[in-house]
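Section 3.1 - Work completed
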Amino acid sequence: MSRSLSEKLTAPELDLLSPMLSQEGDTWTASFQGLTLRTALQPIYSISHKRIVGYEALIRAFDNDNSAVLPLHLFQLPSSNAENLLLDRLCRYLHIRNYSGLEDQLNWLFLNVSPQAVTSGSQADSFFGQLLRQTGLPPHRIVMEIVEQPTDDAEKLKETVAYYKKLGCLTAIDDFGAGHSNFERIWNLSPDIVKLDRTLLTRATEDNKARQILNGIVSLLHQSGCLVLLEGVETRDQAMIAIDAGVDFVQGFFFRRPSIDLEALTRTPANFDELLDEYKTRNQVTLDPTRQLVGFFSGFFKDAIDRLGSGSSMDHACVKLLNHPAVSRCYLVNDRGVQIEDTLVSELGVRSRDPRFKPLESTSSADWFRQQYLRQALAQPESLHITAPYLCVTGAYMCVTLSLGYYQEGELRVLCCDILANPPEPSISQY
């Protein structure tokens, strides 16, 4: 690659790339170092809409014998930054040419672009604005995917992302959750969409704790103002994990593999009705044990509150609760969320104590108002509430909490009872 060509790429002109493209029927191909490049698309589905909302464009390379060349080998061919830039822009040019000719005139086109490419030159990738003007593809139909990896010029990357947004494109962070991922890039670039790396899904498939972390990441990204796409969905179980995690969009072999038959892809349905019906059934089954716990312990709570109303002490009033093999501890909270007296711990709770967390054991005068179970009980007294499993701060163990608000001498109080989510024998599996 000559120095003059490198300079031309720094100040890009479409005329440099146009001779490298040719049309075959309704599709376009490109030539690069003796290889023929074609566009492959993979559908992206919205779970709530139950349909395709976009396509990721992927490059496919073929040699003179029409044998496929791995993308990895294709991107190893450039020997300079200028050639890297040329290949990147050639791929985007090819993808947009092909996508502009599809019948689908609604959905997004996701385009991959590396930080090295978008931070090259001094014109904030003005090539792309020229490309959109020439092809007539509206910028609001483009999602620019920035690969999640370090860049030598973070400020230049930020400027380039701002340029895409100014054009009217959406932006996405790709492969979040792998390698160098962190929320700092989310804060700095404010992407519209975050694509979670498939390693998060793989771990969630194998480990329930990783599944909870995945759900938490999705929640944090939503709170950051980002839509979330989970890629790499390959099995039905992974599709169910994606649905449960609350992601907005999914992509993967389970739904549709990438294909160079572009028009066929626009007519690719996915049976989300069946998946969502299965999710609802599974979710119903998951909730059943919770309902059983509420129903089972209602009598215990009524007995304890009757005794408290008659002037009994906490340890006497809660004796039946504390003797139950599933109960870890009981405590009483006033209407301001502050605990009255110290916690009563059952034999199960004593056995489950971890001495490493001893500084957290005493909870006298602790303030629990931030806890949802406490606020629910205060807002809806006389009803027994139960939480999903969560990490309890008094010992860093997973538990569920039952809470019931009641009135004693005109004052609102809340009786709380913790049950270990993963208790030692004997367990609560009988429910």
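Second construct:
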Amino acid sequence: MKKILYNSRKLTFANFALPLRTLRLIAFLLASTAAFAQQSISLEKAIELAKSNNIDLKIADKEIEKQTVLKKAAFQPDPLQVQYQGGQFNSVDFDHNVSVQQFFPLGNITKANRQLQEELAKLAEKRKALSSYEIEKAVTLAYYQYLYGVSIQKLNSELNEIYTKFLKNAELRFKTGESGNIEVISAKAKVKEIETQKAQLEYDLAIYQKQLQFFIQTNENIVPDQNTALQYVFVQNQENSKAENLMTEFYQQQISVYQKEVGTFKALRTPKVGLGYFAQTINTESLFQGFTAGLQIPLFGGVNTTKAKAAEIGVSQSQLALDKNKMILNLQREELQNNFRKQQKNLDYYQNEGLQYANQIIETAQKSYANGDMSYWSYISFLNQAIDIKKQYAEATHSYNQSAIELQFPTIKNN
């Protein structure tokens, strides 16, 4: 099962071999057309589409189908034996003998085969559930990565509006002789810088869109609904429970498969019964008939005994792996919870205080500078402080979302 890699700040494609240069080329080619060919969808719809389109899940469905079909092969009689004999085996005359013989398994071998195949089909279903879980996590991370890009774009537009007003005020003050040309030049440089950043952000957003589209696996230009709240809605008291259940069910099913293998190998040590029919000539006179019956006794059944013991060891291995990964999952949960609380506390500050301070600083500084009550350098200093707070708020929200999603979908180990 493929593993999708993430870091704490930004979704990556380490296991898909898509370098950043390639993604930027894709973004450059599509940036001019993406705006009028996009379909806006909710997170729930994006996850639904990903699960219906994803090739890995379709492969998993075929594996379930294959294992289900193989249940019909539970009854495994030996090939029909047909033999012809001709020659002088009765007298000097040339006689003929035709015989047919079929051996059938005895005991519980057919039942054991069927039960083993049923457990293998269930194991394929558990593997699909793990893949579906990882896809849901990947889509959610990519979805909010795009929304983060949108929030940065909005901040850039807000900054552009602020500095455009500043430029007008600077030009007016220069015309009236209240300030020097340095203010106008500085304001123009800042507006140009913001416009350049806007173009770069458009490329970044196109990359984020391709990341989301990659996980949904569609040719349509899917984008998140921009009316979605930027902050991810974390469901309290449900973190880790789904992951632990999926992991536990997978290993328990693996144990069931090994247990059924033990029964199958033990059943292979039982004899097989054979029934036959023959017809022959004697002294060229025909037709003489008869029936045969026999047993195939596995005198050297040590191979199946050894395989049964190996399957029993597999049961112990799966139980140990389950215990180990439960411990890893619990430790991971504690680490993710601590990080989530840290990011939540940081976000609370900006939502309750920091953002209000930034807006007040901008509003007050603009009025004071327009009225001539504040120097150019003081105005720039306060403006940069407010802008920095807004940037930190966007980053805090993004970090919170990443930590919340990771806590909602902790990584499952299944090896």
